[in-house]
Amino acid sequence: MGVHGHRARKRFGQHFLSDPAIIDAIVRAIDPEAGDCMVEIGPGLAALTQPLVERLGRLTVIELDRDLAARLRHHPHLEVVEADVLTVDFGALAARCAAGPGAAARRLRVVGNLPYNISTPILFHLLRWADRVQDQHFMLQKEVVDRMVAAPASAAYGRLSVMLQWRYAMEEVLFVPPEAFDPPPRVDSAVVRMEPRPQPAALDPTLLEELVQVAFSQRRKLLRHTLGRWLEERGFGGAFDVQRRAEEVPVAEYVALAQALGAPR
């Protein structure tokens, strides 16, 4: 059995944070203030939830596990959304943030120990509401955080790096070893801070995602074999150097290409 008698469920990717020093360090990194409009994804056994709600006064949590959601409902200062996070409309949650008196400028703060088996889909799901978000602090597999913040011409740089760096400024703020959890995962973890860029390049995110996916589909080959052919099929007549590998192209160039492709002919 896990901490507090709850058995971690493999299908939900459950690993419960249990190290008080790590919990304290994460809360300090988030720096919650009374009145902040915050949503926690995957509160689990409330290791992070409790210190957060003590500082905030009120907190919304999203929990898929029926038993854990039932436990959390007993807490008087929590609003529990029992749902798969990939179905949650964060725009509606953000709208509620701005609806209160004197809260027009308030934006959503999102935190969580994300299930590692679906962390990338969750990050992509949240992308569409970046303009309604103040910041995001997530515990993730260290390897995923490395990919998120990777620089061009590195092995970790890829589709995730480009899609998220276009929209967020990101940094790793804390390393978390396996023994900080019960049960311990087989991987190292890290906490990442994500702050939406105030004036991101205007483009069609679906188009950017498609071209980046094509570019990195065969990362060992030069882009002329993948993205070059894709651009030809679309009748692109602009300048873009395809005599490089996907990992050699900076985020700004992928963004500029998506803008050029999306511009009216």
From TrEMBL:
Domain Ribosomal RNA adenine methylase transferase N-terminal residues, every copy: 22-198
GO MF annotation list: 16S rRNA (adenine(1518)-N(6)/adenine(1519)-N(6))-dimethyltransferase activity; RNA binding
Cellular compartment(s): Cytoplasm
Entries under SUPFAM superfamilies matching the protein: S-adenosyl-L-methionine-dependent methyltransferases
PROSITE patterns the UniProt entry points to: RRNA_A_DIMETH, SAM_RNA_A_N6_MT
Binding, S-adenosyl-L-methionine: 15, 17, 42, 63, 84, 113
Enzyme class: transferase
Principal localisation: cytoplasm
InterPro entries per UniProt: KsgA/Erm, rRNA_Ade_diMease-like_C, rRNA_Ade_Mease_Trfase_CS, rRNA_Ade_methylase_Trfase_N, rRNA_adenine_dimethylase, SAM-dependent_MTases_sf
Keywords assigned: Cytoplasm, Methyltransferase, RNA-binding, rRNA processing, S-adenosyl-L-methionine, Transferase
EC code: 2.1.1.182
Segments crossing the lipid bilayer: none
Catalytic activity: adenosine(1518)/adenosine(1519) in 16S rRNA + 4 S-adenosyl-L-methionine = N(6)-dimethyladenosine(1518)/N(6)-dimethyladenosine(1519) in 16S rRNA + 4 S-adenosyl-L-homocysteine + 4 H(+)
GO CC annotations on file: cytosol
Function: Specifically dimethylates two adjacent adenosines (A1518 and A1519) in the loop of a conserved hairpin near the 3'-end of 16S rRNA in the 30S particle. May play a critical role in biogenesis of 30S subunits.
Family recorded in the similarity comment: Belongs to the class I-like SAM-binding methyltransferase superfamily. rRNA adenine N(6)-methyltransferase family. RsmA subfamily.
Name assigned to this protein: Ribosomal RNA small subunit methyltransferase A
Protein source organism: Tepidimonas fonticaldi
